[in-house]
Amino acid sequence: MWPRCGGRGGTDLTMLRSAVPGQPASCWPLLPPRPGMSLLSSYEGLRQEIQRLAQENEELRQLVQLLQENQELKQVLRNRSGSLGFCGSGLLAEVTSSPRLPRHRTIKFKGAERLLPAEESLLDSSPVIMGSPEGRFHFAIDRGGTFTDVFAQCPGGHVRVLKLLSEDPANYVDAPTEGIRRILEQEGGMLLPRDRPLDTSRIASIRMGTTVATNALLERQGEPVALLVTRGFRDLLHVGTQAREDLFDLAVPMPEVLYKEVLEVDERVVLYRGEPGAGTPVKGCTGDLLEVQQPVDLGGLRGKLEGLLSRGIRSLAVVLMHSYTWAQHEHQVGALARELGFTHVSLSSEVMPMVRIVPRGHTACADAYLTPAIRRYVQGFCQGFQGQLKDVQVLFMRSDGGLAPMDSFNGSRAVLSGPAGGVVGYSATTYRAEGGQPVIGFDMGGTSTDVSRYAGEFEHVFEASTAGVTLQAPQLDINTVAAGGGSRLFFRSGLFVVGPESAGAHPGPACYRKGGPVTVTDANLVLGRLLPASFPCIFGPGEDQPLSAEASRKALEAVATEVNSFLTNGPCVASPLSLEEVAMGFVRVANEAMCRPIRALTQARGHDPSAHVLACFGGAGGQHACAIARALGMDTVHIHRHSGLLSALGLALADVVHEAQEPCSLPYAPETFVQLDQRLSRLEEQCVEALRTQGFPRSQVSTESFLHLRYQGTDCALMVSAHQHPATAHSPRAGDFGAAFVERYMREFGFVIPERPVVVDNVRVRGTGRSSLHLEDTPKTQTGPPRVDKVTQCYFEGGYQETPVYLLGELGYGHKFQGPCLIIDSNSTILVEPGCQAEVTEAGDIRISVGAEAPSTVGAQLDPIHLSIFSHRFMSIAEQMGRILQRTAISTNIKERLDFSCALFGPDGGLVSNAPHIPVHLGAMQETVQFQIQHLGADLHPGDVLLSNHPSAGGSHLPDLTVITPVFWPGQMRPVFYVASRGHHADIGGITPGSMPPHSTSLQQEGAVFLSFKLVQGGVFQEEAVTEALRAPGKITGCSGTRNLHDNLSDLRAQVAANQKGIQLVGELIGQYGLDVVQAYMGHIQANAELAVRDMLRAFGTSRQAKGLPLEVSAEDHMDDGSPVRLRVQINLSQGSAVFDFSGTGPEVFGNLNAPRAITLSALIYCLRCLVGRDIPLNQGCLTPVRVVIPKGSILDPSPEAAVVGGNVLTSQRVVDVILGAFGACAASQGCMNNVTLGNAHMGYYETVAGGAGAGPGWHGRSGVHSHMTNTRITDPEILESRYPVILRRFELRLGSGGRGRFRGGDGVVRELQFREEALLSVLTERRAFQPYGLHGGEPGARGLNLLIRKDGRTVNLGGKTSVPVYPGDVFCLHTPGGGGYGDPQDPAPPPGSPQQPSAFPERGSVYEYRRAQEAV
Is the pTM of this model over 0.85? Predict the structure, then answer.
């Protein structure tokens, strides 16, 4: 059976061809398979089949005779049959000489010479002399999820490559070992039995990249692990950052933790602050002083560890507070564990000594979980060789792009082992071939696409998530997105949708003949861009049939029927589309989906995507490369001759790397330069010595020093090298890191903070042992024109065109061809589109010059294909605006917490696109823009930029400042569209620092107010006027003006710049399509969202009607002060519309729980999106089918002067609970954000804290997570204790606080803060009186509780909202609410695994992390 995909495998169709290496495309159809002929994997089967067919073919009969006469050739073919024998027809075609064969190779052997078809997968153009070769072999092997690629440099310098299945237990145990065996047989001409260890005397080195770690992580198939953690933090890794992965999935699917059990260790180390009674400080490796408040209790721990051993756990992860700087306690625990017999112990202080216990803990767990599996694999691999490879250099690729010896290859550094080889491959080939022009790597596979960038140095990230596990380790910045050949195609509510769901390897695309869904691969097949005759007969239930174009057409016809039904019967009647037009539409939408992460990756660092070369590799990318390059403005695509095996090639070219790193907390200042140099020198010596022990002379070793620098008071640290900044008299001897930091900070963020001190977080040295491998297998120069193998018909815009097909193996340096054409080899299909020109370079690669796309006419009438493309373009505009805002803002809130939204609006102020999807911002800016249009009327002129935050003008709360720019177009009197950005400013004045007072009673107490303020007038920034307005609250008794004017002004300028970027991008769109078309599609995309909501409302109403229930639903809940929030929803089934009537909701309150109307609309859009259950455009159209009735003067539409800060963070949650309760979607979640503020004269701290999520039909509520209208990440415990005068005593789940039910509610958390200085504690919380409701018989979740435990032991219940002074030794104990249960607790328990699980798709990379961070505010 075809193996299930793992890692980078999947339905990468074009890679399947290489499973039959040596089958030229023109040969496969010659001998059709007979019934019953499937896999021929043995020599005996091959011999019998040849003899049978030799009776019908004279040339084959002669070849059989030759085989019988020559034993050496017989052995060669015998050895090849295991990898070539996927089907009878393919294998026989290879050994059948034919006039149509595209290429031949002379094989010399004793006593005979015969011309045979070339093995295309070997790509060795020079003759191979069988006999006793001189020298030794160098192997580079990429073991992927589906295929293993072997790249071998043979004695004499020539190259062999081989592709075989990673799993084929019927024929071999281990694919890399089998690949080495076959090449040794082929080169040596002697039989090497599979059941004997291979002789290593002729093997110099083996380099390997593997997905073993990635697959174990994705499939949760690692070693059983126990976590040992400081007491009070047993659930720390379960809670993690407390942010949920998917904002709109009510089931809150989250990856489960890797450990099986937890042991709490009685020990505690805190940072030393010299309080009275403190013990003698100890010095950490960072230079910080620490206090050991409780030594580790090894006696009590011993018995617990013995219990783990008795339960079969042999691997431990040890994660103790502040061990990054003081690791003695971890060392003591580790020594005890090893003494007791644990086979693997991962100490977080050794795995990755960096501050922040949560990612360091995840990394240690991943190491303990994966490393034993890797070691078992390595041991098994070694057993296939004599002497266990003792005298062979065996190196494994790490996630950072460097090779490491197999005995130091560990789990936490292995998850990108496979993909990293591809990045190294194109960096070492394409970048040099293109003269140093920056390169975007584009590796399109079956289930996903990897995107990366190289511009002379590897781009690393030092914290990233894979399969839901955050790893704190150097990793190449490889961005994986959900778009591949197997991505499924949908037509939803008038929109073409590609992915993220994938067909997988089973059943695969429809063309696999296994009943699979229609995919991108099927669309390419329908368009003629894939040729079924180019693939082996390995499809269908018996895996013996060819690829089915008919199955693709049939599956796509079903979707085309939906499309045409919508076009002919929908709101905008249009002509139906042909099947090819539908297929082309899906391909274009897929291309646009893949362009978005490339734009984000480049623009995030201030680069222009059009200035790059697109390096295409992987099996599926060649079909899309021209279109993607054209869409991004690139003019060159480079496809390496070994593109289908580029990861293996990258392994051959990679360097051996050893890194040394240690934490630091020194300022970057002249007085610390000597210490920094000493540290760097010590780490450099470690690296050099480690590489020397691996056999590298000093002349082949280079080192590069790095400092992890950040401005004091910020979290935005950059790992900088000084290799381009030599030392000066005012820098460390190792280089001018300060200049390097300022240069990079300016490039990435657009400004610097010269008055702010710079802090060193980590010191790092990367040592490199340079590889000595040189490849010399370039093809010969060709003089004549390339031979056309065949001419086929491919569909492009406008219809079918004759498309010549070339075989890559026949092409040589100098060949050129105009598009359209197809270039095919055993691993991939390259499509050269019309208007493009391809050439073969001197190195044998394909370089495509991308021409401009032929102009196409797009009308204002709805076209679902262009609707999908415009949807991506509009979202991309909002995303790029956000990148500019984040880069140019200065405050922590916007730059690092990413608490902002950017949006695009139509000429009527209606929302078109909004990014990111911060729940409390959804739809709210639309009210702001529309208010300004009505308020100012004709008083809007070019060069004006507006500022607003007033609740009655569409604001949420005052710190959220919205900057709006109207956009004018030549010949138009009124603005043709609007752009806006809303950012949370840390302080705008008011009665408390942070402008979030828990006890405000009027709007003036909450800070500066802007109803409709011209921030820029006539192109001039009104600095004086806005400064006066920001300071105005200071004129009110008890209030202050803004406490951080500099940041306010800088961030406002950044918001103006972000809007300007949006204007530029929409202007480019108008220039491409015309104003009428762009405005028309703004309306079409809003109508699409409207249609999706109408469909959902109809489905809900139909479901109730079928059960005999009324079409009116209602719900009621209460704020803790008793204020009711009431909702009645009336469904109009025929129209798919609804009235949401909040009549009966309580009046405005004397306090700050009042919620502006915009808050209710945001909560409603959020709920509608959750109820729709899939991605839809979030814009004005969501509310078009809905009429919202909110009584004036109520808590949901208060008077203009009412205090509102609590309404934004608390009442919004109750509105969501009421809406979801009315629809019966799920039980109530904690219904609170648990706002905690701490401050005094010199510091301020604010956090929101997780609770329990509500259960629903089919899932248990998630414990310890934020829900609904917030998704804020919580400060890491070590950062919290290092920056603020507190000790975090407990942070764990509040067991039993979730409501009972057939599906139980999620538990809240317990969080205890001990204060070390006098300060003012403020709490703003809800659900302290009314419990989160259960649903359908489920019990409610537990109420929250706020306790203050005074130093003398007195315990005080603080209630839900208060401010209270606290003193050293006091402890604040926060118990957050649990979620409600769903269903009767007496009902049968659900079967195991019924709760929804997250998709195993491994989305990752800096673009993904950025989006997660944006949505975590």
Answer: no
34-38, 476-480, 645-649, 1317-1321: least confidently modelled range: 34-38
List beta partners, residue 270.
291
pLDDT at 23 over 70: no
Q: How far apart are the first and last CA of the chain?
A: 46
Could you identify the residue written with the tokens 């200071």?
Answer: 1034
Angle, in degrees to the nearest 10, between helices 864-888 and 549-569: 90
Cα–Cα distance, 773 to 789 (Å, whole number): 35
Q: Can you tell me the distance from the alpha carbon of 1176 to that of 108, in angstroms, rounded to the nearest whole number?
A: 63
Cα 238 vs. chain centroid, distance in angstroms? 20
1022: CB partners within 8 A, 6+ apart: 1014, 1015, 1016
Q: How far apart are CA 1311 and CA 242, in angstroms?
A: 13
DSSP 315-379: EEEEE-TTTTT--HHHHHHHHHHHHHT-SEEEEHHHH---S-HHHHHHHHHHHHHHHHHHHHHHH
Neighbours of 942 (CB within 10 A): 11
**Residue 707 near residue 762 (C-beta atoms within 8 A):** yes
Using alpha carbons, select from 715, 660, 701 the residue that is nearest to residue 682: 660
* Angular region, 1369: left φ>0, alpha ψ -120 to 50, beta rest: left
Distances (CA, A) of 1033 to 989, 1013, 1014: 6, 16, 19
Sorted by sequence, the CB contacts under 8 Å of residue 274 that are 6+ apart come out as none
Q: Are 814 and 781 in contact (CB under 8 A)?
A: yes
* Torsion 121-124-129-134 (CA) sign: negative
Strand residue runs (E) in 618-700? 636-639, 656-663
| Alpha carbon distance 1228, 1377 (integer Å) | 10
Residues 1006-1050: pLDDT tens digits? 999 999 999 988 888 888 999 999 999 999 998 989 888 888 888
Burial class (CB in 10 A: 0-12, 13-18, 19+), 1011: middle
Quote the strand ranges of 910-976, DSSP E: 911-915, 945-948, 960-967
Can you tell me whether residue 1169 is helix, strand or coil?
Answer: helix
Q: How far is CA 1277 from CA 318, 508, 1312, 1339, in A?
A: 16, 45, 11, 33
* H or E stretch covering 12: none
Query: Residues 316-338: what's their mean pLDDT?
Result: 96
Which helix (H) or strand (E) element contains residue 800?
strand 799-807
Which of 851, 841, 813 is CA-nearest to residue 433?
841
Burial track 1316-1330 (b if 16+ CB lie within 10 A, e otherwise):
bbebebbbbbbbbeb
How far, rounded to the nearest angstrom, does the alpha carbon of residue 1225 sit from its chain's CA centroid?
29
Question: Closest Cα to residue 1062, out of 977, 1129, 1133, 989?
Answer: 977
Residue 182 phi, psi dihedral angles, 5° rounding: -65, -40
In whole angstroms, what is the distance from residue 1307 CA to residue 1317 CA?
Answer: 31
Beta-carbon contacts of residue 708 (< 8 Å; ≥ 6 apart): 462, 664, 717, 718, 719, 720, 760, 761, 762, 763, 764
DSSP H helical segments within 570-664, as ranges? 579-603, 625-631, 646-653
Burial class for 435, CB neighbours closer than 10 Å (0-12, 13-18, 19+):
exposed
The residue count of the chain comes to 1417
Mode of pairing for the β-strands spanning 147-153 and 225-230: unpaired
List for the chain the helix, strand, coil content (%; round to 5).
35, 25, 45
Q: What is the pLDDT of residues 240-272, one digit of tens each?
A: 989 888 888 999 988 889 999 999 999 999 999
Token pair belonging to 160: 């062999």
Pull the structure tokens for residue 1354: 């007195």
Q: Rounded to whole angstroms, what are the CA distances from 306 to 231, 312, 319?
A: 19, 10, 19
In the predicted model, is pLDDT for residue 1172 greater than 80?
yes
